[in-house]
Design a protein that fits this description.
By secondary structure, this protein is α+β, with helices and mostly antiparallel strands. 26% of the residues lie in helices and 16% in strands. Bound molecules: FE2/S2 (inorganic) cluster (FES). FE2/S2 (inorganic) cluster binds next to loops.
Amino acid sequence: MAQRKRYLFVCVNSRPDGTPKGSCAARGAVAVHTALKEQLKARGLAGLEARACTASCLDTCWVGPSIAVEPDHYFYGRVTLADVPEIVEALARGERVERLVLKPEDYIEPRELKKQA
Ligand code: FES
């Protein structure tokens, strides 16, 4: 297999129910990863353009499901199944879905923000 232009690391980390941070798995990340793989393949992008991989915690749990896009080095957050077609089409154009790209403040855990206030 050739090296793809991009790798999308989908956090599928799971934590026990009731954990304050929650987890991407609890917010539907496993289905997002599966749909991403399927739709990249269906769109003809899986061979050379992009590969969807599973990842453990990316440390942005509070805005999960989280996806790290490399080598572009940006993160998507709050991704739902409904967002997957838009992500795939953006990849086909070499673009990103700006509304899903995490902003600098999204990387700060909410409890840390409260401490700073
Ligand atoms: S559980 Fe997915 S980023 Fe932490």
